[in-house]
Specification:
The chain crosses the membrane at residues 6-24, 36-53. Keywords: Membrane, Transmembrane, Transmembrane helix. The protein is mainly alpha-helical. The chain has helices spanning 3-24, 32-45, 47-54, 59-62.
Length: 65
Amino acid sequence: MDINIIIMLGGLMLLHFLFALRAFKSKVDLSTNKKWLWCFLSLILGPMGYYGYHGFIPLDRILKD
């Protein structure tokens, strides 16, 4: 394999992991199941999953974050 492809895949995996970690450490008051769903979507879809689910969280819960 080309070294550029390996580096790009590694960076993409790191990006997805960082967004899942950010969702896990968020101070937003969600139930455990919703928090795990947010982490899972962030891990699978990266920023698109993180911000996509972030749009469904009520604004009064986000203000603390």
